[in-house]
């Protein structure tokens, strides 16, 4: 059997932490009198914490000192982490665990490729840490998606070429990063939004192990 690298994004693919990011950013936005809706939150998916704050400030046409920005970034993360305290395996998105298990049983290397600096504690709390052979997150990269850096580092750590790497992503920038990196992109979410992906599924419950077997054989 061939060996492929399977690289998973975190937020929106393995767990739905977007709702917690939203609540935490909303608190900051409220304090600054900036309107921040669910539609606005879509703009922050897959985007780094620093860039997310800049987007929110741009929305409100607010200019701020670096000192203020640093304070809000700390405040946002503290608020976000407070939502993760009680996180457990029940927050793993439907269908994800059976696929991870299938990949492990078939000796396929698995990596995480996320923009989040909180990726490790999330994998620990959900009990998924042992499934990952490599973890590349916001602490390891200098270039944000759509730059393929995060996925290229992950493939390298797994000792697999980009052409033999498969990326699961829920954000447009993440799909583009996989494509730019010459990897197979699998979009998880709306076909309209993720049309640049090679394959698109609504969620992991619609991915069967036969499809994964075919990917491994390709
Ligand atoms: P943190 P992903 C991304 O994770 C989120 O989609 C994005 O909304 C968030 O701003 C970013 O992580 C940074 O997260 O504040 O925890 O470092 O989708 O790349 O797994
Ligand atoms: Mg994501």
Automatic annotation (TrEMBL):
It comes from the Bacteria. Its cofactor is Mg(2+). Keywords: Carbohydrate metabolism, Isomerase, Magnesium, Metal-binding, Phosphoprotein. Pfam families: Hydrolase. GO terms for biological process: carbohydrate metabolic process. CDD domains: HAD_BPGM. It catalyses: beta-D-glucose 1-phosphate = beta-D-glucose 6-phosphate. It is an enzyme of class 5 (isomerase). Its EC number is 5.4.2.6. Mg(2+) binds at residues 9, 11, 169-170. InterPro entries: B-phosphoglucomutase_hydrolase (IPR010976), Beta-PGM (IPR010972), Beta-PGM-like (IPR051600), HAD-like_sf (IPR036412), HAD-SF_hydro_IA (IPR006439), HAD_sf (IPR023214), PGP-like_dom2 (IPR023198). Substrate binds at residues 9-11, 25, 44-49, 52, 76, 114-118, 145. The active site is at 9 (nucleophile), 11 (proton donor/acceptor). GO terms for molecular function: beta-phosphoglucomutase activity; magnesium ion binding. The record marks 114, 145 as: Important for catalytic activity and assists the phosphoryl transfer reaction to Asp8 by balancing charge and orienting the reacting groups. Binds 2 magnesium ions per subunit. Belongs to the HAD-like hydrolase superfamily. CbbY/CbbZ/Gph/YieH family. PANTHER family: 6-PHOSPHOGLUCONATE PHOSPHATASE, HEXITOL PHOSPHATASE B. This is Beta-phosphoglucomutase. It comes from Flavobacterium limicola.
